[in-house]
Amino acid sequence: MAFLKSFSAFVRRVLQAAKKGGLSLADLKKLSNLLRRTGKRNAVLARGLLSALSAGGASERDIRKLAELLHLAEERIMRGEEPFNEIEKAHIARIFRSASLSQKAASWLTNHVDEFLASEIREQAIEREKKAVPKKKRRRAAL
User: Considering the entire predicted model, what is its pTM?
Assistant: First the structure.
C-alpha cells in the first residue's frame, strides 16, 4: 500500500475511484462531504496543537521530535499496529508538560491519533519549520 502523502491526495484518489466504480451521485456527495469535513477538522486540530505548543514554550527541537513520533505512528497504523509505545507516550507527555499543556491533551492525542491526523500535524510542523526565520548570528565583541 502506497504511503499517503496528504489527506487531500487521498481524498482525490478515493473520489475518483468511487466515480469509476459507479457510486451513486447521492452517496458520492456524502462521501465527499465526509472527507472534506475530516480534512478541515484535522487541519484545525493540527494548527491549534502546534500553536499551543509554540505559545507554551515548546522548543523547535520538541516540535521536530513530535513530528518524528507522528511519522512513526503513521507507519505503525498503516501496518495495523498501535501508533505509540509507552516510551513514546511518555515523551509526548513530557513535550506537552514542557509547553504547559494538559496531560489530558497529550493522552487524547496518543489515544485518538489516526494516520490522517498524524500526517496533517507532521506536515504542518515541517511547513512551520521551513517558514521560520533564522536567528541572527551574534557577533563576538572584540576584547
Answer: 0.73
